[in-house]
Amino acid sequence: MKFPVTQRFWTWFTRPLLLVGLLLTIPAFYLLLGGMVPAAHTAGQVLYGVAALIMAVDTAMQWQKHKHMKRRRGKLLLDVLIIVGSLLSAVPEDENWGTLEWLLRLALCAAILLRLATLVLQNMKPSHLVQMIGLAILMLSTAGAGFYWLEPNVHSYANGVWLAFTTIATVGYGDIVPSTPASKIFAVFIVLLGYAMFSIVTANIAALFVEEEEANLERQLHADIRALSREVAALREELRGRDHLFMQYERAKKEGHDQQISL
Known about the structure:
The protein is mainly α. It is built from eight helices and no strands. The N and C termini lie far apart (80 Å).
């Protein structure tokens, strides 16, 4: 069984600027949500503004590139909505969010999560299993750091990784649980993204076994075809030999008949 390390792996990230902008919105959201000092809110707003600017540059480049392809341009609508939401999030507001603002911010987070999933996970193949495992480990490590930052009951990075694992696996041992709004929202998105990523890892492992079985069947089929080709070639050679003998027999018979006539 083979695990190729690179098979156009980096072609997943065909829009690196968009990827960077989307990733910047994650700490921006939690700086606004969990920041207890004005500097944290300001940093979150600045990050939202920078992310919106980066995504706007990338989207403008893509729009210009596909300006004659209406189908491709239609896919940029979600990017435009995320940019608008990020710009609105960069506007100073009250620290206490109302119900409508909560709904709008959660909708923006869901859109960002969806865009990240489609950007990174849409071209996954069984041959990318090593890369997928690497991304899963990176996600688990990052989620552990997020819980260590957001959850007051997590007193070490190791406990943060453990909470991230139990959250992604939906085990729910109950020894450590999210207790603040920030960590609870973080847990929701970790579960959603974890389902997507780890289900793909599991599917790729299963696909590798199926692919190996298909490869064995293909090798057996090729061997049978080669054996059949040899048998057909041998049969053709035998038929040529018989045709040659038959022609010799007919020639000898005709010469004998001509000699009898001449006598």
